[in-house]
Amino acid sequence: MSKRDKKAADSAIMNARTLYKKGMHKQAEEVYRLILLQDPDNTAALLDLGLALAQRGEIDEPQALYKKVLGLDPRNGNAMMALAIVTMETGDRDEALRLATLARGMKPTPQALGRLGVFCRKAGMKEDAVTCLTAALR
Questions:
Q1: Least C-beta-crowded within 10 Å: which of 89, 101, 127, 136?
Q2: DSSP states along 31-86
Q3: What distance in Å separates the CA atoms of residue 129 and residue 134, rounded to the nearest whole number?
């Protein structure tokens, strides 16, 4: 991918994020899908699309998107954390806890740590929840 194409993709991702924050979720999803038509391995678009779909309650497609991100970038803590959360939604608590533990060691963003803290609280991991939420606030 050329620098020009990369810059255009980055701009499109920022546009999609802005649309999403404004509540224009369908339009944001469309932009992410257009980006992925041009660059199927764009990890930011894959992750953001997965997060948007998961917020809508979908599980299968976000799970596949997060796994693709991890196939491209095995140390992506945000994708690992997101995969842990959707895996918990499938009822596979043991696998979700394994993924969450891995995610903690991958230095996810503060937002991801916050979501991981909420996940840990729901899973009954109170000490881990406090640790994650505290780290997210730093």
A1: 127
A2: HHHHHHHH-TT-HHHHHHHHHHHHHTT--HHHHHHHHHHHHH-TT-HHHHHHHHHH
A3: 8
Of residues 70 and 122, more confidence is placed in: 70
pLDDT at 8 over 90: no
Contact 16, 8 (CB under 8 A): no
- pLDDT for 13-51, tens place per residue? 999 999 999 999 999 999 999 999 999 999 999 999 999
User: Rg for the chain (alpha carbons), in Å?
Assistant: 15
Give the Cα separation of 121 and 68 in Å (integer).
27
Chain centroid to CA 127: 23
Residue (of 116, 91, 96) closest to 106 by Cα position: 116
Give the global pTM. 0.81
